[in-house]
Amino acid sequence: MAAPKVAVVGAGVIGLSTAQCIMETCPGCSITVLSDQFSPNTTSDVAAGMLIPHTCPGTPTHVQKQWFRETFTYLFAISNSAEASEAGVHLVSGWQVFKNTPKEELPFWSDVVLGFRPMSKAELQKFPQHRFGQAFMTLKCDCPSYLLWLEKRLKAAGVQMQTRKVADLWELHSKYNVVVNCAGIGAHQLVGDEKLFPIRGQVLKVHAPWVKNFIRDGDGLTYIYPGIHRVTLGGTREKDNWSLSPDPGATKDIFDRCCSLEPSLRGAQEIEVKVGLRPARQCVRLQREVLSQGGVKLQVVHNYGHGAGGFSVHRGTAKEAAHLVGECIAALQDSSSRAKL
Ligand code: FAD
């Protein structure tokens, strides 16, 4: 069989990292990333890029933890290399604070992030409305920089990038042996997945270089995440809302909530409003499927539905998707050698 041709649909953090893992695990493949949008116009560009996982009810905790650990380990090595600034990956310390002590005092990811511990009474004095808190250090991606860094590495390794909207995965069958679906919320239309729904998120990106520590309130609706260039202030979570237009009422509400956690933000400048649709699902769809029409088959791998935590687990799910692509190629090679007998 000639070098297998793999198409990855989608150029958000999931598509690009999946293409990268395929490149690493199947070096003989020819890979093309097909996407109607590239950075800076994806949901992944809007994200804060913090590595704090969101619990996904349909995925076993040990699997979520494994995905998070693999992602953390991978990005930690980048943050500790000469690439860190170009890739936009850095360590950040801060606090997660609660008005009431949470039921689960030790989240499943507490031993993956660094230095996780309860906050001291003295630290809690910074947050007079909160009674309990956790301090730790985690990683953060400056999302557009990280996406461009991934794209650059892929192009340097010979991966093709094509701007194209795919209406149906089947339209790729004549040109590619394996198709990987990393279309994020676009998979709702692309493969008609009714279990996938948007959770609209609005954030503000502001200039406030004196803010150095992250602050996350309780379940994470309100947060302040300092990045390399800008601080991300969040947020909103609106289930089934497909609107990408900024809501001025939400902008004011987010800003006020963040200022009540960090009053110095009243002096923030250059407020930019961004909106994105989190691709939410009961669990990430990470599986093989064989499409078939008139006796012709197309090997497909799905990797979408990462909801509010795509950055936190992207490398772990990309590795698993690349493994599934390897299985598809082995199946194709097996049937091609049997056909020759
Ligand atoms: P996308 O980035 O949407 O990429 C999908 C790609 O598929 C795009 O390139 C699109 O153009 C392409 N596509 C879609 N349909 C088609 C088609 N038919 N044909 C061709 N191409 C197609 N996660 C974290 O871990 N930490 C955070 O701090 C964080 N903060 C967030 C804040 C906000 C406000 C939002 C909205 C999300 C946040 N997230 C965060 C979640 C994270 O952004 C997502 O989980 C992640 O970006 C999903 O990546 P993706 O590649 O699947 O989707």
Automatic annotation (TrEMBL):
Chain positions recorded as D-dopa binding sites: Y223, R278
EC class name: oxidoreductase
Alphabetically ordered keywords of this record: Cytoplasm, FAD, Flavoprotein, Oxidoreductase, Peroxisome, Signal
Gene Ontology cellular component annotations, sorted alphabetically: cytosol; peroxisomal matrix
Major place of residence: cytoplasm
Signal sequence range: 1-19
Identification of the protein by name: D-aspartate oxidase
Name of the gene: Ddo
